[in-house]
Amino acid sequence: MGVAHRSMVFALAALLALAAISGAAYVAVTEPFSATLHNGGSIYLGKVGPGQTFYVIISSDTTNSNGTMINRGWNQFAVNGLPGGWIGVNSSLNTQYLAVRVTPSPSAPNGLYNFSMRAVNIGNTSGLGNLTFSAAVNVTPNVFELDVYPQVISIAPGQPAVVHVTINNTGVSDSPFLINSSGLPAWNSTLEEIALHGKSSNFNYTVYENTSGTWNLNVRVVSTESPLVYKETNVTLEVGESVLSDYGAIGDGAVAFPIIYEPVYAIMYLINGIIKSV
Questions:
Q1: Is 24-139 a CATH 3.30.200.100 domain?
Q2: Domain definitions of the chain by residue range
Q3: Third-level CATH fold of 144-277
Q4: In Å, what is the CA distance from 66 to each residue of 19, 164, 224, 240?
Q5: How many other C-beta atoms lie within 10 A of the C-beta of residue 273?
Q6: What is the helix (H) or strand (E) element at residue 134, kind and residue range?
Q7: Contact assessment for residue 185 and residue 209, using Cβ atoms and an 8 Å cutoff
Q8: What 8-state DSSP symbol labels residue 258?
Q9: Which residue in 44, 76, 150, 251 has a CA-CA distance of 20 to 30 Å to 94?
Q10: pTM of the entire structure?
Q11: Hey, which residues does 70 pair with through a beta bridge?
Q12: What was the pLDDT predicted at 180?
């Protein structure tokens, strides 16, 4: 067989393979991100903390071997081969979107874990059979980034101090986070918020202190499902009986004066910031 002939055969084989794939059944993953998988494929889902629940969701629509669209061709979505101590819950039947719930063991060591997922055409009524692919997830407590500001807050006694908390959720779980703090004599408040996976979310955490002094406030963010998934940072809270602390409180979220005076106090807040930075 000549070189030209062999090249033509290889090219034809490649085209036939491509045509077979394009006309075959597929799974359209919608969460934790969009992806298209064929039978025998694989997918890396991302990071999850030990004990944190996450979902893998697919559309029930697909195509058959002729490329014809089959609405709700997949009747169920299932998970198999999870490591010991993990929990997997298969999807309900015959819904537009099929969701599998997976919860790693709370004591799962850090590392990459593999398991199998299967889209099922029950009874092969549409001639689709089953479609199986492998999935991998990285278990690590490092699934979010924390930013807290300002680092120094000046207020008068009894005025609210607003701590701005930004949680950048880099994992695949949408499990809630608890925002709390320590370091103030009589304040122990907890805020529960959901920071969706793949997004950066901002929250306001308010604290109060009636006693003058400089306080070291420890702000802590922890997953409700895993005490191993947490981050913390310190904020300095300056509480004092002074006009400048009143102006500083305005900029940190406390409204202490009538609205007609706000322009003046805004200027004084800027002066207060300049003084603190010198």
A1: no
A2: 24-139, 144-277
A3: Immunoglobulin-like (2.60.40)
A4: 10, 55, 47, 76
A5: 17
A6: strand 130-139
A7: yes
A8: -
A9: 44
A10: 0.78
A11: 62
A12: 97
